[in-house]
Each structure stands twice: as structure tokens, then as C-alpha cells.
Automatic annotation (TrEMBL):
<dbReference type="InterPro" id="IPR002524">
    <property type="entry name" value="Cation_efflux"/>
</dbReference>
<dbReference type="InterPro" id="IPR027470">
    <property type="entry name" value="Cation_efflux_CTD"/>
</dbReference>
<protein>
    <submittedName>
        <fullName>Cation transporter</fullName>
    </submittedName>
</protein>
<dbReference type="Pfam" id="PF01545">
    <property type="entry name" value="Cation_efflux"/>
</dbReference>
<feature type="transmembrane region" description="Helical">
    <location>
        <begin position="152"/>
        <end position="178"/>
    </location>
</feature>
<feature type="transmembrane region" description="Helical">
    <location>
        <begin position="16"/>
        <end position="36"/>
    </location>
</feature>
<dbReference type="GO" id="GO:0005385">
    <property type="term" value="F:zinc ion transmembrane transporter activity"/>
</dbReference>
<dbReference type="InterPro" id="IPR027469">
    <property type="entry name" value="Cation_efflux_TMD_sf"/>
</dbReference>
<dbReference type="InterPro" id="IPR050681">
    <property type="entry name" value="CDF/SLC30A"/>
</dbReference>
<comment type="similarity">
    <text>Belongs to the cation diffusion facilitator (CDF) transporter (TC 2.A.4) family. SLC30A subfamily.</text>
</comment>
<dbReference type="Pfam" id="PF16916">
    <property type="entry name" value="ZT_dimer"/>
</dbReference>
<feature type="transmembrane region" description="Helical">
    <location>
        <begin position="87"/>
        <end position="109"/>
    </location>
</feature>
<keyword id="KW-0406">Ion transport</keyword>
<keyword id="KW-0813">Transport</keyword>
<feature type="transmembrane region" description="Helical">
    <location>
        <begin position="121"/>
        <end position="140"/>
    </location>
</feature>
<dbReference type="InterPro" id="IPR036837">
    <property type="entry name" value="Cation_efflux_CTD_sf"/>
</dbReference>
<feature type="domain" description="Cation efflux protein transmembrane">
    <location>
        <begin position="17"/>
        <end position="208"/>
    </location>
</feature>
Length: 303
């Protein structure tokens, strides 16, 4: 995986750093606001924001870690640090969502409803919304430029923005109707926004750690492309996995017409196969073992 020292990457890090500062400030405001107003929805949104802050920090760390070169002990570099961070983030999300659901349900069934101060709740939520929109606009450009890392950061802040809108609606309902349960209902909605993302994160972590074929990668299609390459007779022991998101690795044994090897065409064939994997399947690290026809009997039964 290429190390990114470009001005665009430096700009992305700057944008991420500013967005992290904005989100951190809003997080503190929401925690204080939840304590002063008694709003569970504000506390739920703060929990959501805490997790998203962790996600933004992971995204920032990924831009730095990805630039570190491999070593003799870390031959793939430190790219998998992002996956460990995502695992921690996913577990935090689950804990926050479960805690919010328990708190919201207990409030809904309680005989005496806790009083929520609607006006300061609304003020804090509006501050959160304005700050989140500012962070969204900051991250929009790099997210639109098809940076996977920055697009993930953009979605983190988008979730916070939706949470702030839910709190604003709940505060409006409390102020206009006195319906205190609106706070708990908004909390459940925020928990409902948190859980799918937690599931998605943990599913991707399991996929990487179990070395499953990356999402949207079709092994049958890769085999087809390899077999269509001139001089290739067969392919076996095909393996595709990911070091981290967007860093796919491929290996295979390719059975080749002996004439290709005898004529010194092995180097050109390897270049053609590597270019095919890189251009068609976004695989930057590929390893091929070339075998002359007649050795196909060595194929693994699990290939």
C-alpha cells in the first residue's frame, strides 16, 4: 500500500484535526447540558458523539500510521491498527446503545416522570447541530474525493448531526406540549441509529480478522481474468484477504504453458497479472507462484 505524503493527505489530516476539535467541544457541552437539564436524549447524543470522536481519532491515526514503512517485525506495516481501533469503537457503540435503551425504557415505564428542562436542552442541541454542520462542510470535499478513510469520518459526523436534530425535535415537543416522554423516545431513536453502525463496524472487523474475502470482491471473477491471460493454463490455491479496509492482498498458484517459461516470458506474465489485479480488483499486493503445466496435481483441496 502506497504511503501517502501528498499535499491532499496533509490537507485531510488538517480537516480531520479541526473536525475532531469541533466534535470534542460539542461533546463537553452536551454532557454538561445533559447534567443541567436532566435530558437522557442529550446524554445519548453525547454518548453517540463520544463514539464518533473515537472514530474520527481512528481516522486521523490511520492517515499517520499508513505512512509508516514496514519493518522486519511488521512486514505489512501498522495498517491493522485501524482494525483494532474499529473493534474498540464498535464495542463502545454497543455499550452506549444498550445503556441508552435501558435508561429510556426505565423512564418510559416509571410512574413519576423525570422533569426535563426543555429550553436549555433546545439551546444545547442547536449548538450541537450548528457545530456538526460546520464539521460536515469541512469534511465534505475530501469525502467526495473518494477517500475511504475521509468518507468514514464524514459519516461519523453525519450521524451526530441526525442525533442533534432528534434532540431538537424532542425539546420542541416538551416546550410546546409538556410531553416529557419525548426525551426518552428521542433517546431510543438515537440508540436505533447507533446499533446498525456498531453491527457494521464489528462485522467488518470480524471479516478482516478471519481473513475472509473482502466485501465486493468476487474470487470467481478474479479466476476468470487470470485464466483469460495468454499463456495461463490453470489457477489454484487462490487466496484473497485484507490487512485493513482498502488494503487487499492476493496470492495464487498459476499453471503456465512451459513455452512461456522457456522463452523467458515469466517476468512479462507476472507484470500483466499484477496489473490486472491492481486495475480491475483494487489489489495492490499480489503474489503469484508460476508452475509449468504438469504440476497442477499439487493443488490444494481447499483452493
Amino acid at each position: 500500500m502506497a504511503h501517502d505524503h501528498t499535499p491532499a493527505a496533509a490537507g485531510n489530516r488538517t480537516r480531520l484535526t479541526i473536525a475532531i476539535g469541533i466534535v470534542a467541544c460539542v461533546l463537553v457541552v452536551e454532557v454538561i447540558g445533559a447534567w443541567l437539564t436532566g435530558s437522557l436524549a442529550l446524554l445519548a447524543d453525547a454518548g453517540h458523539m463520544f463514539s464518533d470522536l473515537a472514530g474520527l481519532l481512528i481516522a486521523l491515526a490511520a492517515t499517520v500510521v499508513a505512512a509508516r514503512p514496514p519493518t522486519d517485525r511488521q512486514t505489512y506495516g501498522y495498517q491493522r491498527a485501524e482494525v483494532f481501533g474499529a473493534l474498540i469503537n464498535g464495542l463502545i457503540l454497543v455499550a452506549v446503545a444498550v445503556g441508552v435503551v435501558i435508561g429510556a425504557v426505565s423512564r418510559l415505564v416509571a410512574a413519576d416522570q423525570a422533569e426535563v428542562r426543555g429550553t436549555p436542552m433546545l439551546v444545547v442541541a442547536v449548538i450541537g447541530l450548528v457545530a456538526n454542520v460546520a464539521a460536515l462542510l469541512l469534511l465534505l470535499r475530501p469525502a467526495a474525493a473518494n477517500s475511504i478513510n475521509m468518507r468514514g469520518a464524514y459519516l461519523e459526523v453525519l450521524g451526530d448531526t441526525l442525533g442533534s436534530i432528534a434532540v431538537i425535535i424532542a425539546a420542541g415537543v416538551i416546550l410546546t406540549t409538556g410531553f416529557q416522554q419525548a426525551d426518552a423516545i428521542a433517546s431510543l431513536l438515537i440508540a436505533g441509529m447507533i446499533l446498525p453502525r456498531a453491527y457494521s463496524l464489528l462485522r467488518d472487523v470480524v471479516r478482516v480478522f478471519s481473513e475472509s474475502v473482502p466485501k465486493d470482491t468476487d474470487v470467481a471473477e478474479i479466476r476468470k481474468h487470470i485464466l483469460e491471460t495468454a499463456g495461463v493454463v490453470a489457477v489454484h490455491d487462490v487466496h484473497v484477504w485484507a490487512i485493513t479496509s482498502g488494503a487487499h492482498v492476493f496470492s495464487a498458484h498459476v499453471v503456465v504453458d512451459p513455452a512461456v517459461l522457456n522463452s523467458g516470458g515469466a517476468g512479462a506474465l507476472l507484470d500483466e497479472l499484477s496489473d490486472c489485479l491492481s486495475h480491475h480488483f483494487d489489489v495492490d499486493h499480489s503474489t503469484f507462484q508460476l508452475e509449468p503445466a504438469g504440476r497442477a496435481g499439487h493443488a490444494s483441496p481447499h483452493a
